[in-house]
Design a protein that fits this description.
globular; 25 helices; mainly alpha
Amino acid sequence: MFETFAPLLSLTPIIAVAIFLVALRWPAAKAMPLAYLTAVAVALLFWKLSVLQVFAASLKGLVITCTLLYIIFGAILLLNMLSESGGLAVIRQGFTNITPDRRVQVIIVAWLFGSFIEGSAGFGTPAAVCVPLLVALGFPAKSAVISGMLIQCTPVSFGAVGTPILVGVGTGLSDQQEVVDYATQLGLTSWEQLLPMIGLRVAALHAVAGSMIPLLVVAIMTRFFGKERRFSDGLKIWKFAIFASLSMTIPYVAIAATLGPEFPSLLGSLVGLAIVVPAAKKGFLLPQGKPWDFESKSVWDASWNGTISSELGEPPANLPLWKAWFPYLVIALLLVATRLPVLHLGQLIKLVAVPWDSTLTENLFGTPVTIKPVQPLYLPGTVFLVASLVTVFLHRMSRAAVGRAVRRSSRMLVSASVALLFAVPMVQVFLNSEQGAAGLDSMPTVLAEGVASLAGQAWPAFSAMIGGLGAFVAGSNTISNMTFAFFQFGVAERIGANPIWVVALQAVGGAAGNVICVHNVVSACAVVGLVGREGDVIRITGFVFLYYILVTGILGMCLAWT
């Protein structure tokens, strides 16, 4: 009898987040402790996990939280260093010279530059880079966070040089005889040859759904943060927005078809930047008339503002544009160099791990929970710290200015820590809920099986939704793919659908789930001092998530039977 209601019970932690954070608009620092307690109660009372297993999963969450806080601190520190040195004022002036139109600026920074950072680093790094940069350009903090979150869908499946496909889907499908047999039926010599095939389909699905994202970002910005509060102000640049979108998505698909899953986001975004920035300078496809801008900051709603000031003053005369941008160039180069397998640099710095012996944290306390060693030099936080040091010396900052930046960054980090200290352990309890005395699979698997039993032949319409819910909870497209890739493959074979398309839908949905992922939103809010407004952000980004899974669900019903 209990098994019948298990899928509904597995939803309770997600429902708790939806009620407290989104519906009631509680700050994450208040909502996430209750969501954590809900997950713990379900795990202990219904999944009948041991107290040790819940403790081990929570401890794993705390370790991951520390890595997230490290990344957040590095991003905040770089922002404050550039603010103190005058670099942000120079960068803002540089963007104004391209175009003063905020609609174009958000497309260039969030959509194109953000996609490049996602392609090189992944794991929420675009928000840590682009959101504070938008604030420095004069965007309201809340608008910057929403814009930075909304683009974390299309490039995510190929983030961190293809990790969600190569590691996420690859790990999920590995060592499965059904996958090997299917690959053999297709005449392939290895099941791994399915991964580029899946990657191409993922790129095609994203290209259809994602081509509207820049226009949606702009329209949402003008509707919620413009003087007239109108979607129409954003829709006026639809030609340029679609042009900027296709400038990235067309090469993105071509690269997926020719080079594989590692480079679509990384190279597609660079091609897009090379096309769009010169076009914006010349006013190509932009409407005539006064460039669109926000109202004066003095009349902004108080809820729009973070604790980081965007009043940067005049750009220093002795700081050229290339020097101001150089720390970001350092970030891009280091991220790419450490993520490209061919350079082997990433493998080298991963040798520095805490603890150095991975067996020390396997099957913690005799439970199924394993904590992976932390590799501090590989984390984006270290890259941000290196860029901050470069800023100190290159911009010739005084000791007093450096001290102010460090103190301000430390204070901002504390405000973000409470929500993450509960949000991430909740996720880990949810994910690591298998092998309890109740004999049930983990909560996400039980939830997916419940949806599959209801959907039947219509499963391809729901595949992306399951991937999205996995990423919403786990905060990672990679983990969602690891968890559900083989499950999606198996359901597709049972109903006679094409498993390659169904797994591709899983990967696309997992990418879309990042726009509503709680700890990604908490992190994005933290870097601009907008802590406490996480629910407001998800209330808006949730509509784009629904758009994405609806479009891909319709495509799935059309394509998965081919």
